[in-house]
Amino acid sequence: MVCFQCTDNFQPSFLVSESAQTCKKCKKVKDLIKYSTNLSSYIYSINLQNKFNMISPSFNGNELIYFNPKFIDEGYTEKEVFLEIIDCLNLQNTYYNNVKIITNVCNQMMGLIIDRINDLISDNPKGYLISLLNILEYNLHLTFITISWLSDKENNIIIEEITDNFARVVINSLKFQRDYNFLGRFEQIYKEWEGVLSFDKLAFQYGIEIVTYLSDKKQINNSQIDPINFKKLIATIRAMYELLFTCESAYEHKELIIDKKGNISTKKTNNYSEIAKKYVDCMINRKVSSFDIKTINKLNMVCKKYIGISLEEISKIIGGLQNHYVNSDDFLIGSVDYFQKLIKHLLQCSDKDAEKFLSILMSARTNNFIFATSTSLRENRPLRKCLITIEDDIVACPISILEFSLIGLYLDITYATLPKSPFQKELFTIVDKYVHKKFESDVILHLKNNFIDAFIKGDIEKDNMVPDIEAGRGFLQLPGQIDIIMLYRNKMFVIECKDIGLKYTPKSILNEVYRFRKIGNKSFQNKLSNKVESVYNNWDSIVAFLGVSSENKIQKHMPISLFVTDTFSVAAIEKDLPSPVVPFQKLIEWINQQV
Question: What are 494's strand-pairing partners?
Fold first, then answer.
């Protein structure tokens, strides 16, 4: 760790927390990390072991590591947090069906939770902040190993070589469940475990935002964090995010139920085991996307304009970090200008471009913190704004979190999912125009490869494309551009392609399901329905356009319509949608079922 008060020289290795180049200010931060990380890692690891053992037995190879859930000490849990809050506000056995009252009740509970977080960190606020960053890093480590193992079709991952003991036990246990699949529960076990990691990732990010705000301008206390308080802090942050999720659902369904045991609930709408099975299948066989050079060049031009560097240069920074720093769980610690020198060194770019890009990664310091009212992804979340100021201008960040943030930024750019801004608007224009066309082309190729005798047309423009056979002249006026029309085994299909990206926050999942459920003039369903009716009403013209011989009489029928998505969507399990949602991975199987 280093700043330019420590040395006039620049060396990437000086940013690692073990570096001896430390002035008095940097040493305080270095000691803070030393006192905070080991204990927090141990506490979180034990906590996750308990959670995993409630989902699945643990195995070492084929040997069961015996446990009895009755003897698991879960410590202070989210349920206890809710019990205390409900008791304090006297909310036992209450029911609400008015949005205004639900909002008031949720705000009261959230206010108490945030007060408790403030109390829990009061003895060592900066120490708890570093500890939360540390367990977020460990969460990323476990997530990466878990997803990599699931996607490892060629068995390249050697379980015995996984150095982290708990991670090795988890993968051994998942492998045993997959190989033997007792009671057909592997998919659900996997999804529940990944769900634990995903939930913690989201909850801890918001918790870090709050603790960063509450600890700003507080003095560093170079002593160990209180282990009991840290256990309570983990449970309280989880409870806070669970409350956000529940209240969000309560607003939608206009129902909030609180019982005497501390359970806060609302209507349940999804079949979890069905979600798990479809999700795991889609993750194992997920579609891999790539960009053509033309699209990449256009994205690079916009990136250069707004953040000073290109997509390739973001990848170059990630590669440079991996080359310079072997231990990804280590912290980089240094002044803002020293981090700027790191970017300049990795890219060989100007000071201006390095400063411009670094600002994208810096966590904002504010006196007007806006607390969350939903689970929507926040602009200042630590897995995007990962460089957090600890003392004056000294920043601390685990290497893997910096790498993850850069990967996330790369994906946000390619999906145009950045916060709304002129930058996002220009990206969206490119992504919507080029990436959607690429996905549409991928779907057409997939259909042609699997249904050789099918008649398929794609990218059918609204005007001046389909000859009007019945009128004998001119072209059809369609209600909109149609992605794909296919005739297969005398069945007509009208297919709409939606490259939506994987949704993983409760808010984005709910929004996506709602968009596919909604019926209205501008809804997905209504727009596709109008296209289906147009195909039906202009049957002979469409059949001729597909290239079917006039001698081959195809019985007129209402076409089968569907949405195909590039990845798993919870909307795929929705029943009774006018046009169903089918993931790319299940498209061929679904069409075969229709014919």
Answer: 485, 561
